[in-house]
Write a structure and sequence with these properties.
Largest interface: A-B, 42 and 43 residues
Helix content of chain B: 25-40%
Largest sheet of chain B: 6 strands, mixed
Helix content of chain A: 55-70%
Order of helices and strands of chain B: EEEHEEHEHEEHHEHEHEEHH
CATH topology of chain A: ABC transporter involved in vitamin B12 uptake, BtuC
Structural class of chain A: mainly alpha
Number of strands of chain B: 12
Largest sheet of chain A: 2 strands, antiparallel
Oligomer: heterodimer
Strand content of chain B: 25-35%
Number of strands of chain A: 4
CATH architecture of chain A: Orthogonal Bundle
Number of domains of chain A: 1
Distance between the termini of chain A: 9 Å
Structural class of chain B: alpha/beta
Strand order of the largest sheet of chain B: 6-9-10-3-11-12
Number of helices of chain A: 17
Strand order of the largest sheet of chain A: 1-4
CATH topology of chain B: Rossmann fold
CATH architecture of chain B: 3-Layer(aba) Sandwich
CATH class of chain B: Alpha Beta
Radius of gyration of chain A: 24 Å
């Protein structure tokens, strides 16, 4: 480790330096660092800068294609929001030193737990949603328990979960319905007491008003093309704010950082490392259910292929957001911006008419650049450049 | 004669057929530094782990204030006022100094869902406690990774003192440090002693141990060779009693003979 620019520890007589005058004065050993450089070492800065670049790029190449109309923006915000919901909690889990590869399969599993009882057996929709949350909490608990009890990497434990849950979803769905798709949930949503939390749009009046003012495009009947903000966007913003509050301002947040940063040191001072990890796994799996509820209620159908590769997309968003794969450092706000980049580019490529196969190339390169950048930032933070 | 705050009486520890400790007795007294000296394999690590609640002794007793106790876990030991600072395993480099200082025992303010970290108190207290031990923290929000090895040890010690430790166990706090850094840590040890803590200082470096110690217990191959008050024993005598000390003396003589020939 390199300490060359850490000033020598005080050889100064201790008594003289404790005087009140010294305390009041600014410590001369704190090098004045410009605001800019202070901002640069925040974990989310890379993702925010990336978002700005991506927006500038698409404003130039796709500015007149309808991507930045109200309808177009609602589209890419919705794509970003769904991923952002996963990413906010995945960021907490990754800062805590673990990740969950089973969350994509969890989404498919929860979709079916919501769809099959409500459509095939006629259960009330709200009960199915609550059941899905309860089952995912149990799956998360089992994931967490195995990881903390065995000390095995979460990579391998949750990889097993990825296959088991996906296979279980397929087998049960085919066994019960003889198909891999269950549809018809739309009709249940309107009358369900909690259906509106997961589907539809909000701020319709505001959008209508904007339509009347002629600011956004309208249909022939005078209603705006974009009827409102998808409810998923609110979940996205809410969960990001919640995760950020937890991380930066609560005891549990401090435990997450400690658990991911150095579990042995954390345990030595009494941080309940195992409890933190298990709770994070439970939160992650339940977020998968939230994602499933939003998709199923919005589209009206469940499919055994739901959530495929979402586990990787969430990891990408989190890493692009400046969180270290090894844990102990990162931000939920960054993960949100990572998701926004993801959604914007995915829809942007569609609007520019480029073959969408190129999206994956872009994704891969973006991850690599982000990891290299994170590594640099970490060295900055620990002052060992 | 003051009573020992923390004492081991005839403690042995076996791992299967291996005898890690045999019939070791030590006593740490308030306001004194007890140095445990021994070469590699002397049983130092086992002894620390027994004192800090990681291992339970196979035979013998642990006494706190003269009362026999059973330490169930490091947390249990911590709650009884026995704080152990493990080398390299005390702080998290990516977290800020203030977050590290209060790790596991964060102060909060506000009620219900608005209960949050008392950030101002955390920063202020960290600064003050570190300053009391002679380390002037530049910025409590900077990452611990930017501190030197000595300063990190001091952070861990300041934390233990703040949270009311009565016995401070330091595991090789100076062995990875340079001369200057080591002297900073030694100074902190003296300050902790002045505050009335019982300090158990584990090391294999006599030159670090001798200036700050009040008593020495020398371990060799799992046994205690004896406990000596500083006034009764010279630095060279201590060195000689440690395993390897004799070898160094022999080596010196051998080299002298070789160069004379």
């Amino acid at each position: 480790m390199n300490h060359q620019d850490v000033p020598a520890t005080p050889a100064v007589p201790i008594e003289s330096s404790t005087s009140a005058a010294m305390l009041a004065r600014r410590d001369e050993r704190v090098r004045k660092v410009s605001r800019w450089r202070q901002l640069m070492v925040r974990p989310e800065m890379g993702a925010i800068a990336g978002t700005i670049l991506v927006f500038i790029f698409f404003l130039i190449v796709a500015g007149d294609s309808g991507m930045f109309s109200a309808k177009g923006m609602v589209n890419f915000l919705e794509v970003s929001a769904q991923l952002g919901i996963l990413a906010a909690i995945a960021a907490l889990l990754m800062i805590g030193g673990e990740f969950d590869l089973s969350v994509g399969s969890m989404i498919a599993f929860s979709s079916m737990v919501i769809a099959i009882p409500s459509i095939v057996w006629g259960w009330p929709l709200w009960a199915c949603i609550l059941l899905a949350f309860a089952l995912s909490a149990l799956v998360g608990f089992i994931n967490g328990l195995i990881v903390v009890r065995t000390g095995l990497p979460s990579f391998i434990v949750t990889l097993a979960g990825l296959f088991v849950l996906r296979g279980l979803t397929l087998a049960l769905t085919r066994g019960i319905t003889n198909r891999t798709q269950v549809s018809g949930i739309n009709e249940l949503v309107a009358t369900d007491p909690i259906g509106h939390f997961f589907s539809g749009v909000v701020f319709e009046n505001f959008f209508q008003w904007m339509g009347k003012m002629g600011w956004i495009a309208t249909r022939p009947d005078g209603l705006p093309l974009a009827q409102g903000m998808p409810v998923s966007v609110l979940w996205w913003i809410g969960l990001t704010a919640f995760a950020t509050w937890i991380l930066l301002r609560t005891r549990f947040g401090n435990w997450i950082f400690a658990t991911g940063g150095d579990p042995v040191a954390a345990r030595n001072v009494g941080v309940p490392v195992a409890r933190v990890k298990i709770l994070l796994f439970m939160a992650m799996a339940m977020t998968g259910t939230l994602f499933a509820a939003i998709q199923v209620l919005d589209s009206g159908s469940a499919d055994t292929l739901r959530g495929t590769q979402k586990e990787f997309e969430a990891i990408i968003a989190v890493v692009v957001g400046g969180t270290l794969l090894t844990g102990g450092y990162g931000s939920a706000v960054g993960a949100s911006f990572g998701a926004l980049i993801f959604g914007t580019v995915q829809m942007g490529i569609f609007y520019t008419g480029v073959d969408t196969d190129w999206f994956k190339v872009f994704l891969g390169i973006m991850v690599l650049v982000a990891v290299l950048f994170n590594n640099y930032v970490r060295k900055r933070v620990t002052g060992s450049r | 004669m003051t009573e020992a705050v923390l004492a081991l009486e005839h403690v042995s520890k076996f791992f299967g057929t291996v005898i890690a400790l045999r019939d070791v007795s030590i006593a740490a007294k308030a306001g004194e530094v007890l140095c445990l000296l021994g070469d590699n394999g002397a049983g130092k690590s086992t002894l620390i782990k027994t004192l800090s609640g990681v291992h339970k002794p196979s035979e013998g007793k642990i006494l706190i204030d003269g009362t026999p106790v059973i330490l169930d876990s490091p947390r249990d030991a911590l709650d009884r006022g026995i704080a152990t600072v493990f080398q390299d395993l005390a702080t998290v480099p990516l977290m800020s100094i203030a977050r590290n200082f209060f790790m596991g025992r964060e102060p909060t303010t506000g009620k219900g869902p608005f209960r949050r970290l008392d950030w101002d108190y955390m920063c202020e207290t960290t600064r003050k406690e570190m300053k009391d031990l002679g380390i002037d923290v530049r910025d409590p929000t900077q990452a611990v990774g930017t501190l030197s090895g000595g300063e990190r040890q001091c952070l861990a010690i300041a934390r233990a003192v703040h949270f009311g430790a009565r016995v401070l166990i330091l595991d090789e706090p100076t062995s990875a440090l340079g001369v200057h850094q080591a002297s900073v840590v030694l100074r902190i040890i003296v300050r902790a002693r002045a505050r009335g803590l019982a300090v158990i200082f584990i090391t294999h470096n006599v030159h670090h141990a001798y200036p700050v110690a009040d008593e020495f217990t020398i371990l060799n191959r799992g046994r205690s060779i004896g406990t000596f008050h500083k006034s009764d024993v010279s630095r060279d005598a201590v060195l000689e009693m440690m395993a390897g000390g004799k070898e160094l003396v022999d080596l010196e003589a051998e080299l002298k003979a070789a160069s004379a020939a």
